[in-house]
Write a structure and sequence with these properties.
single chain, 205 residues, mainly alpha, Tetracycline Repressor, domain 2, 9 helices, elongated
Length: 205
């Protein structure tokens, strides 16, 4: 059978597309090469004509997922209202369809925890946080603890996920400062009083 001149490039992209969905849905360990290639009508042996290793595929697939996620936030037709972006991100649809969603959960929960953070995380954190810069975090009194817990878990998760250690520390420090901030009616509110430096922390809880 004769193939077009760009057949190999097209096949490689098909593999990346499918792997990108599976990595976000099933995680890295849950994405096996044999079922991945079989789903595309390809052989396991043929995989190595396109990638040196599974790790190379993981990086390519996560880069694609990051590009897709950022496009939803930054493309010219993306909502100008950041509130819409927040609503979409925290929607049940996004929760229930991880294969089409943000890859930070995979990057954080698997690569970060294993001590193999990816620079793709740094890109996502930087650009998504810039888009959210105008947001003021608020919570109903009954939900303060829940929001604080979400911030604690999220900050630690992201801090493990990014490759740059300076950025990692900045995430921890920013979340700590926000959670130690005085209430809005306190005279110190808005003065930017920092939390205690990380170097002065006592043993972690």
């Amino acid at each position: 059978m004769r193939y077009s001149s760009n057949h190999k490039a097209e096949t490689r992209q098909r593999i990346i597309d499918e792997a990108s969905r599976r990595l976000r849905r099933d995680g890295i360990d849950g994405t096996g090469l044999v079922p991945l290639m079989k789903a595309l009508g390809l052989t396991h042996g043929g995989f190595y004509a396109h990638f040196e290793s599974k790790e190379a595929l993981v990086q390519a697939a996560l880069e694609l997922a990051a590009d897709q996620a950022l496009a939803k936030w930054q493309d010219p037709d993306a909502p100008a209202d950041v509130g819409i972006l927040i609503d979409r991100y925290l929607s049940t649809r996004h929760r229930d369809n991880p294969g089409d969603g943000c890859p930070l959960e995979t990057l954080s929960a698997e690569l970060g925890v294993r001590g193999r953070p990816s620079p793709t995380s740094d890109l996502l954190v930087e650009q998504m946080s810039e888009r959210l810069a105008e947001v003021e975090v608020r919570a109903a009194p009954a939900d303060q603890g829940l929001v604080a817990l979400a911030m604690l878990v999220g900050a630690l998760t992201l801090a493990r996920a990014v490759a740059d250690r300076g950025s990692s520390q900045h995430i921890l420090d920013a979340a700590r400062a926000a959670l130690h901030a005085p209430p809005l009616d306190c005279p110190l509110a808005g003065t930017g009083t920092p939390a205690q430096p990380a170097a002065q922390e006592e043993a972690q809880g």
